[in-house]
Structures are given as structure tokens and as C-alpha cells.
Amino acid sequence: MKILLIQPPWYGFQNIVSRRLYLGLAYLAAILKENGCQVSILNGESFFDNIEPVEESVLINRDDYLHNISASHEVYQKIMKVLTEFDPELVGISFMTANAPVAYRLADRIKQYRDDLPLIAGGVHPTLLPDEPLHKGYFDYVVRGEGEQVLLELVNAIKQEADTTNIAGISCKRNGRIIHNEPRPYLKNLDEISFPAFHLLHEVESQPDACNGITATRGCPFECNFCASSLMWSRKVRFRSADNIVAEIEDRYRRLGITSFSFHDDTFTLRPALVEETCRKMLKLDFPIQWHCDTRGDTLSPDLLKLMYQAGCRHIYLGLESGSPGIQKQIKKNLSTEKVHSAVKMARRAGIITTVYFMAGFPDETEQDIRQSINVMKKLNPDRVIWSIVTPYPGTALWEEAEKRGLVNEDTNWEHFFHHFNQGSFFRSMPEDTWNNMLDLINREQDKFNNPTAGKMLWKRMKRTAANPQKILKYSSRLIKTALCT
After folding, report:
1. Number of domains the chain is built from
2. Which domain, by its residues, includes 413?
3. pTM for the whole structure
4. Of the candidates 265, 200, 195, which has an alpha carbon nearest to the alpha carbon of residue 232?
5. What secondary structure letter does DSSP report for 141?
6. In a domain, 469, yes or no
7. Hey, which of 13, 227, 285, 350 would disulfide with 309, CB 3.0 to 4.6 Å?
8. Looking at the domain assignment, is residue 81 inside a domain?
9. CATH of the domain at 17
10. Going residue by residue through the chain (486 aa), what tens digit of pLDDT does each one get?
């Protein structure tokens, strides 16, 4: 059976160059390929030409974005051209809330091309709102949650024209009525899952950056009210073995020559002993690698960071979200600024770059709360910061709060629902002019971190070098060589 898996375009509509491919699609492609299917993956981001790239910022140009994602954009035609040439027997589209409008436009075009072509929706947004893709009339099935076994069983049933009534983990229409089959139990042993088949990506040679995703875990034990990760993967965390993780790195290198990796785990260092074992095995590889990860500041230690650096870690991303203790408590982040401050300093000593995430616009947040976050950001002094605007995505506790306040419902226009849009303070926690002043201040302060002057860059480098004594001799030798050559 010929199957096409699609990641809808999105970043390109914002003039942001991003080749990152959803890891889930590569996992799905692997299990389908192993079971005799002919599979191809389309990365929608790879179809953009002539982008004048910009950095992702607190706010994007809303008018340009809404114009770009309209159905007239040439990227849709390019995707459809490849689709018609491949001529699949089944199509799956994975999408988030923010790019749901693009997924629906693509699905509409596919159904116009061939109305009898089975169309399956998967990913975070369809999992959390499974009725919507079916109500829209474009999709025939929704695969909810962890999709490997579900999709394989569904594909076999479609191929054999068999009944799908008992396939756990799908939603579909029967006799004009939407039916949600029982949930599929989560996979217990992650080591049994086939390695992601990035090599099945269309024109893979031209987009190596799309192929660096990897995970060590599935699941998140924390209760942050703005995140729906636990609804996708559960609160019970499942861990891969160190041997299996490193074997995947070797497989990716042998197949595609990939040596730079991005760990997509919610909290990569949740189990430090596993990270230590993994790093020690990475050090035995016969090729050099570099990687980065997301984690929490309260799961790190100097020894662990030193070992991570030796094993190739060059960048860690730390979520703090707010420097206000009151907001921290409200959003159930339960992470002290002192822990993050300590993590930034320890990472700097180890030679690892840090980026810290912040958000603005939480329910009942005040100007003082935001100013407190800005002051904490300055105190932390990471290498980079990323601010975004609080947006209550479906499935989160924050969505439920927004529903109670009458601010959202399932008829919400997703085109206008994005964490880099200024919709006013979403929860109306402060006057509009105050909110806009706060956004201007956040933009200025973020820019100081992410676009420093040459003098500040030199100062930061000197501080990083001084914090890591092992680098002082190496850096000094480089300066001497440069001086002798001029």
C-alpha cells in the first residue's frame, strides 16, 4: 500500500526558516515500511522558496502571516504536485493547533483531487479535539495519541476493507455519527519501537536539519497548566535504555551522516543516571556528535553538566516561564528562580550555552509580575531568552480556565490563535495600553540578549571562558596565534 505522511507547512508562512520534521511521522513511517508499505514523508517546511529569514520574536507580523497562510499561497500547489506524482492510496496528516488551518486547507485540496482517498488526522490537535477534523468533513479517521500500533492496525483494516469498530485509539464517523473507540494502552517498552525512518523523507538529501530529532523518553510527570504533553503521552514517564538511544544515533549517522541531534524530551535530565549512562556510551562512538536538549533547572548538577558537555551537549533550553512566585504557583510550574539561576551558572562553567523560556499574559498577571520576570531574566543572565504570549491551547488547564471565562470555545478561529500574536492580554488581566507597553519592554529586553553588540558578545565570551578554567589556556593560545599572524 502506498502511504503519504504529511507535516503541514507553518514556520515558512512566518518567514522563519525551519526544516524540523515531526519525530512522530518518522516513527510512523518506520513501522509502516517494516510491514510492507511504500511510504514517503513530506515536510511542508521544505517547499518554501525565497524566504527572507527572520528570527522568531515575541510578536510576528500578523497581517503578513494571515495573508501567507491563505489558500492562494504557492506552497499548497507544490505539495499537491508531489502528492499527485506519488499517487498514494492513503494519506496521513499530523498537525498542531497553530497549523490546523493549513492542515484543513491541504485536506480540502486532497479531497478535491480524490474524494475516495482515505485521509487520516493525527498529532496533538486531533488527539485533543478529535471531533473537529471529522466535523470539518475532510478527514475519514483520527488517530489519537501514540500512533504507531493504531495506524498500522487501521491501515491493514482499510487495505482489507475490514471493520474498524474494534480498533482502539481511533475516532471516525459511522452512519453520520462520530464514534470514539476506546483509548489505546501506551507502549510499555520503548526499546521495541523501530528507529524513526527519516530516510523516507522526500528529498531528504536537501534537508539534513530535518533529521536530527530524537527522544529518550515519552511522558511528563509535571502539571504545568499551559501544557498538554501529559494528555498526549501520559504523566507516567517511559524511558528508553541508554544502549537503544545510542544505537539510534549510530543508525542515523550510518544512514544519513547526521552528527548533530536535538533531544525533544520535555525534561531530558529527569533521570540523571540514564543521562550519565547515555553520555558515557556516546563518548565511545567512533564519530563526534553535538546535541542540545530541553530540561528543568532543578534536575541538573555540575558533574552531570560536565559529562554532558564531554559527550557533545552544547546548548540546553530551560523553562522558567515567570519570575513571579505568585504566577509560578498559579501555573503549577513549581520551580524556583534560584534553581534556574544555579543551572545557568553551572552550564556556563561546563561550557554549555543556555536559553531560558519566559511567557507573559497569564490569568490575573499584573504589570508588577511581568516586570519581576524581566528583572529575574536579567539576574539569570542566560545566553539567550525566548518570550512568548500565553495562549490557552486545547486540552490544557489554561484552556479550561479560558472556557470558564467565556474567552474560547471549540469554534475558535485557529488562524488567530497563536502564541506570537498580540490579541491584547488574552485573559484581560491589565489595560490594553499597559499590556502594549509591557510587550514593547519585553521586546527591547529580549533583543538585548539575543542581538548583543560586539562589545557585549566579547564580554559574554570572556565570562564563559573565565567560568570554564579548562578553556582559558586554549582561548589564550588562539589569541596568541592570531596576534602572531597579523
Report:
1. 2
2. 212-451
3. 0.91
4. 265
5. E
6. no
7. 350
8. yes
9. 3.40.50.280
10. 999 999 999 989 988 888 889 999 999 999 999 999 999 999 999 999 877 767 767 888 888 888 889 888 999 999 999 999 999 999 999 999 999 999 999 999 999 999 999 999 999 999 999 999 999 888 999 999 999 999 999 999 999 999 998 999 999 998 889 999 999 999 999 999 999 999 999 999 999 989 999 999 999 999 999 998 888 888 899 999 999 999 999 999 999 999 999 999 999 999 999 999 999 999 999 999 999 999 999 999 999 999 999 999 999 999 999 999 999 999 999 899 999 999 999 999 999 999 999 999 999 999 999 999 999 999 999 999 999 999 999 999 999 999 999 999 878 889 888 888 877 678 888 999 999 999 999 999 999 989 886 545 555 555 555 555 555 444 444 444 434 443
β-strand 290-295 against 217-218: which pairing, if any? unpaired
Cα-Cα-Cα-Cα dihedral sign, residues 314, 202, 80, 90: negative
Q: Supply the CATH number for residue 247's domain.
A: 3.20.20.70
Degrees, nearest 5: CA angle 407-440-390:
30
- Of the candidates 230, 199, 204, the one whose C-alpha atom is nearest the C-alpha of residue 217 is 230
- Grid cell 494502552 in the structure block, residue: 185
